[in-house]
Amino acid sequence: MTSDSFTSLSISDEQKSNLESLGYSKMTAIQAESLPHVLEGKDLIAKAKTGSGKTAAFGIGLLEQINPRFFGAQALVLCPTRELADQVGKELRRLVRCVPNIKLVLLCGGKPFGLQKGSLEHGAHIIVGTPGRIQDHINRGTLELQGLKTLVLDEADRMLDMGFIDIINEIIAATPKQRQTLLFSATYPDAINKMCRSILKDPVTVTVESEHSSAIIDQTFYPIKNNDRDEILLALFEHHKPASALVFCKTKIKCDEVASFLRSKNYEALAIHGDLEQRERDQVLVQFANNSCSVLVATDVAARGLDIKSLPAVINYELPHDPEIYVHRIGRTGRAGEKGIALSLFSEREMSRVNAIEDYQQQKCPIEKPEWLKKDPNYQQQSSMVTLQLDAGKKNKLRPGDLLGALTGDAGLKGSQIGKIDIFDTFSYVAIEHSAYRKALDYFSNGKVKGRGVRARKIS
Ligand code: ADP
Ligand code: MG
User: Fold this and answer.
1) What is 6-207's CATH number, 3.90.1150.30, 3.40.50.300, 3.30.10.20, 3.10.450.50?
2) Is the dihedral of CA 116, 117, 119, 120 positive or negative?
3) Residue 248 CB less than 6 A away from ligand 1
4) Most-buried pick from 65, 310, 339, 344 (CB within 10 A)?
5) Contact criterion met (CB below 8 Å) for 114 and 190
6) How far is the CA of 54 from the centre of ligand 1 (A)?
7) Could you report the per-residue pLDDT of 200-251, keeping only the tens digit for each?
8) Residue 47 — φ and ψ, nearest 5°?
9) Whole-prediction pTM value?
């Protein structure tokens, strides 16, 4: 039997109290299964879904290996997207804070190369990033991996889906043979299996079953004809009336089409996919997270790692090929004991996918006729908040408290009318209730924040 207390692990006392201060009272299942092997120095293949605590499962392990007095890269974590790398970086920084003088550097595309080069020159112990940019640094001689002890491939299945295999192999070729390799993946297709055989040595495999069960996710499948998809999507909203929803499509183009279609019907829908600029992505995510956009239309890749608490509904506009991806998608709803709904449209040609999902889940997929959906022509899918974008941010030393103070003070808004505040380098976003945003805009057209005029505009 494995213990689920961090105290059972051979890690430093400082880390134990750090974990306690983070509120990590016990290990998650994937941590309890992986950490003992990771700390022994074994190679590892771990299969677990999003939100299971994978970062600490490798983070705690790789930290124990690091020698702060050697100023070279000792751990490298490869992630499929910038958002995921950001998240991993954040979580690792919380784990690192109990060891003095350890430096972590994020290396992702979309950020100035020169700055990253500068950070590397100062010596970095842990590197987190996306394959393309890391390969760039290796090729240009700004990143040296010969002192590497731990290599982590996070969300390996996504990285393969995104076509990173060759780049990853090149990166691995720049690392020492004597290293520990840890591979994390939500699904385990053949391609992963093949890759594992070539890059891991005598690995331990751990699998943690998905925690959600049909008891909290109410799944329904609707047979449709291909050209009915849009109409039935509307009927799903009118019948189920979810407060917000994540809609999955297979391609970027489809995401844009479906989001535009929904907007033409007065839904506050936005699309997110890999073609967006970083700033556009941030803006979409901010709006979805602060409740000013209530429908997000996404590809699997873009949805990976979205830091969204719990969603009332997940809709599969199209079904994925792989039943594991289906289970992964619907795992976004019904979290933490809340009930969620998962609604899937499928054409006759997609029937085999429904069967595969049945086999995978070992339960029947409840099928309902779309004709049974109660349409409601008066239904207005509206989000509760509006997002204002302000032209001041961290660089202007703006903090959430300053905005809150100005809005509840001189502007005369109630605290309850103000939602999430997100501060970026040179601009910020604040969510305000529909009924009050004009008052806030009026205020910003004359009033000041921290003694400075701030321009604001509504973006949702
Ligand atoms: P994954 O990579 O599997 O999607 P993360 O590593 O991002 O998951 O962790 C998900 C969340 O769970 C994070 O907010 C993290 O801080 C939290 N978490 C991780 N381990 C624990 C733990 N043992 N106890 C409580 N919370 C944890
Ligand atoms: Mg993760």
Assistant:
1) 3.40.50.300
2) positive
3) no
4) 344
5) no
6) 7
7) 999 999 998 765 444 478 899 999 998 899 999 999 999 999 989 999 999 9
8) -115, 115
9) 0.57
